[in-house]
User: What shape does this take?
Amino acid sequence: MDKFVIYGGNYLEGELPVSGSKNTALPLMAASILADGTTVLENIPNLQDVTTFAHVLRILGASVQFDPKEHRMHIDASRVNFPEAPYELVKKMRASFYMLGALLGRAGSARVSLPGGCAWGPRPVNLHLEGMKALGAEIDLDQGYVVAKAPGGRLTGGTFALDPPSVGATINLLLAAVTARGSSRIENAAREPDVIVFGEMLQQMGAKIEGLGSTIIEIEGVDALKPITFKNTPDRIELGTFMIAAAMAGRPGDLIHISNAAPEHLGEAFVDAFARTGTKFSFGPGYVDVIPTDEIQPVSIETAVYPGFPTDLQAQWTVFMTQAKGNSRITDTIYTDRFAHIPELHRMNVNAIVVGNQVVVAGNRPIKGAYVMSTDLRGSVSLVLAGLVAEGETHVQRIYHLDRGYENLEGKLSAAGIAVQRVAYQEFPDPVNETA
Ligand code: EPU
Assistant: This one.
């Protein structure tokens, strides 16, 4: 297994480039199987989740070639002939559940494992299932698998109202509805940029979709979609993570340039909260410049659906706030248990208390290096952020969580002045004789 060893005390400086969006790349890959022929996707990040998803597509019969240096992926879906997404992959990565909509759209039938549990509490898929029924699918459960069929081989289309406006369910329903026999309507749809960019790819493939970015999406089914070349958008969560890293670990007054970015996807709430910390920043086409302040103001946040404050930046914000000149409160309304990083941060001298779905964070406290690990992607990167400003060495273990969503993070941080190394280690050292 790998860990990061971060030697605290260096300023972050220069440039941080942002990779392609993970949470957009996965639905783009799913969309490719709706078209016979070869789809080319550009700006696809070299991440573990992308590798896992490519594996899911190969199991279905697609041929997938990925050039990780060029970030280009070729997916030939001509021979998709096995409509099943197995448990081994869906349990690893919930986005594999997109195969339900993609296979219903492509083949009129699907057998997709239910995802099961998640590191930070329940993440149900009831809206995906109820939504597919509304579009005309017959759904059964067999041995932990969802077995879905479109009577007559093609869905009829229909209307479904999401509550809450789930990102994944909106994407899954779009995948299923674009080739339905009739028209469909998704009410209270998710408005995240990931959904919009994915919908734009479907439109370029020939899908008839209206209302992307609004709460009502209307789809008129078409007979077939064509394969295209499509460029993925930059990762908005990596951008937000880098803005926080720059504000915390940059030298006050120095400019840090974050490139290959899409600042327009950050959402109002994050931008507003970031401004209230007193950090100076400016946006340009494809970049964000950050100038850290030595007087970070405490800013409480509450997560919400886009353009609200993203739950995927909540853990990073918590660490940012340990450096502020006062106390703050972080509330997660999307995933009310997403706090696995807090006990690890305690090991680094952070004073933060979880009360229900809130964390109360004490500012003005030095962070101290320690051995830590987290059980999820965003929690892990929050520990890396803590390591940037910690006294001494921080060992962030089980970095495979981080590798799911941050491409070459150690390379990007090293090039920006941070002393960080990826080191292989043994999780369970030689057994010791236990005594009572
Ligand atoms: N929900 C339901 N029923 C459902 C589906 C969702 O009640 O059938 C609820 C969830 O419990 C949650 C809320 O709806 O309270 C929102 O969940 P959503 O379905 O929008 O989340 P998701 O599609 O499973 C995506 C991202 C997550 C991100 C969330 C919220 C991908 C692959 N994942 O998940 O990203 O946290 O949206 O923005 O796009 C990450 O990248 O670290 C990550 C977890």
Summary: The two ends are 30 Å apart (CA to CA).
